[in-house]
Amino acid sequence: MAAKNKIKKAAALAYDHTSPEPPKLLAKGKGALAEKIIRLAQEHDIAVKEDADLVEALMLLDLDEAIPPELYKVVAEILAFVYSLNQKWKQFNL
Predict the structure, then answer these.
(1) What residue numbers bound the domain in which 46 lies?
(2) How far apart are CA 25 and CA 62, in angstroms?
(3) Which residues pair with 12 in a beta bridge?
(4) 0.90 exceeded by the pTM?
(5) pLDDT digits over 48-61, tens only?
(6) Residue spans of beta strands (DSSP E) within the chain
(7) Total domain count, the chain
(8) C-alpha radius of gyration, the chain, whole number
(9) Is residue 20 part of a domain?
(10) In this structure, is residue 30 part of a structural domain?
(11) Helix and strand counts by DSSP (H, E) for the chain
(12) Cβ(27)–Cβ(41) under 8 Å?
């Protein structure tokens, strides 16, 4: 049986750690738009983390909508991952 072709999906979050507001959905897309979101992130040295379940949930949100409380934990884990990458990058690029 042939493997089903999956359409690439991507979402981008905006988060201001100085604000009490939760992260918001900055961009989302499928196919070519998803590839553009990922490419732009990479071009601007923004960490990209794959999480199929999270992207499915984020695709249901409207742009500029705050993430719902049920996604706080998984998004916090991703933000911690990104923070860790940024700290390691700073150590090696002093």
Answers:
(1) 9-92
(2) 7
(3) 27
(4) no
(5) 989 999 999 999 99
(6) 9-14, 24-30
(7) 1
(8) 15
(9) yes
(10) yes
(11) 3, 2
(12) no
